[in-house]
Design brief:
The chain has one domain. It has 1 helix and no strands. The radius of gyration is 21 Å and the shape is rod-shaped.
Length: 49
């Protein structure tokens, strides 16, 4: 019974780490996309002059 509890705890930890990691990647991708869009908009405005 103790072993099973230990296993469950480890699985929970892995699962939580995975979701945390996925969140970090999601935030990174959103930030990067936003940055690229801003660069494009900026280039668009400055190229016209």
């Amino acid at each position: 019974r103790e072993e099973k509890r230990h296993l469950t705890k480890n699985i929970d930890k892995c699962y939580n780490n995975l979701s945390y990691y996925q969140n970090q990647v999601g935030i990174y991708l959103m930030t990067k996309t936003q940055y690229l869009l801003q660069q494009k908009t900026y280039n668009f405005w400055t190229d016209g002059r």
